[in-house]
C-alpha cells in the first residue's frame, strides 16, 4: 500500500476511536451523573417510525436543527450512547428539552411517546421529563438512546441536554429544572392574575384613574401569553401555527397596553398614538385567528414590534422619572431595570443569536410586582395624607364658618325683630289711617255740617261705627301671630250676634275648615271689614228677620256668603246711589276675588265670593 493509503487508514481509525470515545461515555461511579451532550442526528419524514440507516451527523446538545437543515419540517432522530456499569442498579434519565414533540427509545424499547407526533404537535417541551430505567431495558455495558423529535423549522426545533446517572441526583436536577422551566411560569401566571384582578377592581371603583384599567388589561394579555409555557395540549387549535400566531398577538397586545399604562400613570395621554397601536394589536389578533399559516411562521415581525414598543415605553418612563423625579416613579423605574436586561437576553435567545433552552423573563415578574406594589402603596399613602390634611383644614374652616354664621344669624335675628316691630307699627298706623281714621274723619265731617241737625241717636250710631272699626284694628293687631282664622273671626261673631239679636234678627253662623288657616293680618282685616260692612247693611237697611253667614275653606279656596231674607234691592241702582256695594266689591278684590250680588225687591240679598287662600301678586 502506498503512503497515502496508510495515512487514510490511520485517519479513519483515529476518527472512529474519537467518535466512540465521545459517543460512549461511561458511568464510573454509582453516585455520578453525566450530561450526554455528544450525539448524532439524522433527518426523516413525518411518517418515520424507525431511525434512518444513513445521513447521521455528529451534533452537540443542546441542538437546533433549523440552522443545519433550513426549512425542514418533520422528524429528526437523535442517537446517544453511554456505558453502564454491570451492578444491576437502576439509572435516572432526564430529557431536559425537546421541541416540539418526541418519542424516547432505550435499547430499542419505547419508554415514552407524546400523544401527537404530527400536527397539531404535542407541547411537552414546556417541562422536562424524568424516567427511571432498570432491567431489562437497561443493559450492562453499552446502552443506546434514540429520541425521535417532531418539529417545525419556524419554531426552533431541536433537542436539549440529556442527563443519566444516580436516580436521586437526576431527580433533583429534574425538579430544579421543572421549577425554572415550568413552575416559575405558573407562579407568574397566578401572581399576575391576582394583581390584575386587584387593579381591575380599583379601576371599577375609580374610573377616573384609567391607568388601573390599562394595567389590568396588560396583565390579562400577559397571562394569555404565559399560557404558551404552561399548556401542554394543542387544543383548541389544529396547528402549531395558530398557537404561535396568537402567542405573538398576545405578546404585542401586552406590550402596547403596558406602554399605555406607563403613559397614563404619569398623566400623559397620546390618544392618536394609543389608538394606532391598539388597532395594530387588533390587526395581529385578527391575522392570527383567520390566517394562522401566515401569522405563525412570520411571528418575528410581531415579536420585534412588541419588543420595540416594550423598550420604548419602559425607557421613556425611566427618562421621565429622571426629568420629574418622584418616589413612586423611582420605585417603578427601578423595578423595570432588571426586566429590561433579562428581556434583551430572552430576545437574543429567541433570535438564535445566543443559545439556551429557557426564558428568564418570568423570573423577573416579582420585581415588577414589587415596584407596582410600592407605587400603589405610595399613591394611597399620599391620598390618605391629603385626606387627613383636608379633614383638619375642613374642620378648621367649618369652625370658622360656624362662628361667622352664628354671628350673622345673631345680627339677622336682631334685624328681623326690629323689622317685625317696625312692620307691626306700620300695619297699626296703616289700619288706623285707612280704617278708623277714615271713619273718624267722615264722622267729624257729618257732625260739623251746620246744615244737618244731628239727633242723639245718629251721633251714637256714628260712635258705634267708630268703635267697631277700632275693635277690628285691635283684634287683627293683637292676633297677628295667631295662625287660626277661626280665632280671629270669633270676636266679630260674638259682637254681631248680640247686636243682631237686639234688633230681632236671627243670625246663624257656619264656619268650617278655617281653624288651621292663616291669611295674614292685612287679608284678615279686609275679610273682617267685609263681614262688618255687610252685616251693617243688613242691620240698617234690610228689615230682615234672619241672616246666615257662611265661611268655608276647601281645596285652597275660601268661600264667604252673607244671605238675608230682607226687602232686597236692585243691585245696579243701589250701587249708583251709595258707596256700600262698591266698597264691598273693592274689599273682595283686595282678597283676590270677585263679589257676586244676588238681590231683588222682596227676595232678600245674597253676597258671596270665593278667594284663593294664597295671596295674589
Automatic annotation (TrEMBL):
GO MF term list: kinase activity
Domain spans labelled Histidine kinase: 526-615
Gene3D superfamilies: Galactose-binding domain-like, Histidine kinase-like ATPase, C-terminal domain
Signal peptide: 1-23
Keyword flag Zinc-finger: no
Keyword Transmembrane: yes
Transmembrane segments: 184-205, 212-236, 248-266, 278-295, 301-323, 330-353, 359-378
Pfam families: HATPase_c (PF02518)
Keywords: Kinase, Membrane, Signal, Transferase, Transmembrane, Transmembrane helix, Two-component regulatory system
InterPro entries the UniProt entry points to: Galactose-bd-like_sf (IPR008979), HATPase_C_sf (IPR036890), HATPase_dom (IPR003594), His_kinase_dom (IPR005467), Sensor_HK_TwoCompSys (IPR050482)
Classification via PANTHER family: NITRATE/NITRITE SENSOR PROTEIN NARX-RELATED, SIGNAL TRANSDUCTION HISTIDINE-PROTEIN KINASE_PHOSPHATASE UHPB
Name of the protein this chain belongs to: Histidine kinase
Amino acid at each position: 500500500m502506498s503512503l497515502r493509503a496508510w495515512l487514510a487508514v490511520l485517519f479513519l481509525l483515529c476518527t472512529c476511536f474519537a467518535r466512540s470515545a465521545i459517543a460512549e461515555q461511561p458511568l464510573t461511579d454509582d453516585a455520578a451523573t453525566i450530561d450526554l451532550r455528544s450525539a448524532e442526528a439524522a433527518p426523516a419524514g413525518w411518517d418515520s417510525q424507525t431511525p434512518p440507516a444513513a445521513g447521521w451527523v455528529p451534533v452537540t446538545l443542546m441542538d437546533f436543527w433549523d440552522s443545519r437543515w433550513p426549512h425542514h419540517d418533520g422528524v429528526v432522530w437523535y442517537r446517544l450512547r453511554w456505558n453502564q456499569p454491570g451492578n444491576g442498579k437502576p439509572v435516572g434519565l432526564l430529557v431536559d428539552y425537546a421541541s416540539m414533540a418526541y418519542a424516547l427509545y432505550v435499547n430499542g424499547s419505547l419508554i415514552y411517546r407524546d400523544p401527537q407526533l404530527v400536527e397539531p404537535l404535542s407541547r411537552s417541551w414546556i417541562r422536562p421529563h424524568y424516567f427511571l430505567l432498570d432491567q431489562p431495558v437497561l443493559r450492562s455495558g453499552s446502552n443506546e438512546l434514540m429520541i425521535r423529535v417532531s418539529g417545525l423549522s419556524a419554531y426552533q426545533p431541536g433537542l436539549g441536554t440529556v442527563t443519566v446517572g444516580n436516580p436521586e441526583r437526576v431527580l433533583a436536577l429534574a425538579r430544579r429544572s421543572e421549577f425554572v422551566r415550568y413552575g416559575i411560569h405558573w407562579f407568574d401566571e397566578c401572581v399576575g392574575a391576582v394583581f390584575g384582578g386587584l387593579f381591575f377592581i380599583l379601576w371599577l371603583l375609580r374610573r377616573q384613574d384609567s391607568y388601573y384599567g390599562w394595567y389590568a388589561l396588560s396583565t390579562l394579555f400577559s397571562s394569555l401569553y404565559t399560557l404558551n409555557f404552561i399548556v401542554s395540549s394543542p387544543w383548541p387549535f389544529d396547528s402549531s401555527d395558530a398557537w404561535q400566531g396568537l402567542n405573538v398577538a398576545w405578546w404585542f397586545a401586552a406590550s402596547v397596553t403596558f406602554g399605555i399604562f406607563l403613559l397614563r400613570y404619569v398623566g400623559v395621554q397620546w390618544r392618536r398614538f394609543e389608538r394606532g397601536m391598539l388597532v395594530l394589536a387588533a390587526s395581529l389578533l385578527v391575522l392570527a385567528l383567520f390566517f394562522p399559516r401566515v401569522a405563525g411562521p412570520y411571528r418575528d415581525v410581531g415579536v420585534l414590534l412588541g419588543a420595540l414598543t416594550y423598550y420604548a415605553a419602559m425607557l421613556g418612563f425611566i427618562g421621565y422619572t429622571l426629568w420629574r423625579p418622584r418616589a413612586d416613579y423611582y420605585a417603578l423605574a427601578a423595578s423595570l431595570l432588571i426586566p429590561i436586561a433579562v428581556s434583551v437576553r430572552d430576545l437574543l435567545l429567541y433570535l438564535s443569536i445566543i443559545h439556551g433552552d429557557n426564558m428568564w423573563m418570568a423570573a423577573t415578574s416579582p420585581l415588577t410586582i414589587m415596584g407596582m406594589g410600592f407605587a400603589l402603596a405610595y399613591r394611597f399613602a399620599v391620598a390618605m395624607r391629603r385626606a387627613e390634611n383636608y379633614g383638619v383644614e375642613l374642620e378648621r374652616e367649618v369652625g370658622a364658618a360656624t362662628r361667622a354664621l352664628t354671628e350673622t344669624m345673631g345680627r339677622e335675628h336682631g334685624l328681623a325683630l326690629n323689622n317685625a316691630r317696625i312692620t307691626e307699627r306700620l300695619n297699626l298706623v296703616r289700619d288706623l289711617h285707612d280704617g278708623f281714621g277714615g271713619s273718624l274723619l267722615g264722622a267729624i265731617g257729618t257732625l260739623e255740617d251746620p246744615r244737618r241737625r244731628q239727633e242723639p241717636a245718629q251721633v251714637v250710631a256714628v260712635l258705634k261705627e267708630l268703635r267697631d272699626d277700632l275693635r277690628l284694628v285691635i283684634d287683627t293687631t293683637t292676633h297677628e301671630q295667631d295662625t287660626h282664622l277661626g280665632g280671629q273671626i270669633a270676636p266679630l261673631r260674638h259682637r254681631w250676634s248680640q247686636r243682631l239679636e237686639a234688633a230681632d234678627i236671627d243670625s246663624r253662623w257656619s264656619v268650617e275648615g278655617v281653624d288651621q288657616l292663616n291669611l295674614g293680618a292685612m287679608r284678615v282685616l279686609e275679610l273682617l271689614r267685609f263681614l262688618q260692612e255687610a252685616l251693617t247693611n243688613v242691620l240698617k237697611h234690610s228689615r230682615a228677620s234672619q241672616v246666615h253667614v257662611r265661611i268655608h275653606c276647601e281645596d285652597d279656596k275660601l268661600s264667604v256668603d252673607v244671605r238675608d231674607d230682607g226687602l232686597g234691592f236692585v243691585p245696579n241702582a243701589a250701587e249708583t246711589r251709595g258707596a256700600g256695594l262698591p266698597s264691598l266689591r273693592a274689599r273682595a278684590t283686595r282678597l283676590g276675588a270677585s263679589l257676586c250680588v244676588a238681590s231683588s225687591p222682596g227676595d232678600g240679598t245674597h253676597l258671596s265670593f270665593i278667594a284663593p287662600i294664597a295671596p295674589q301678586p
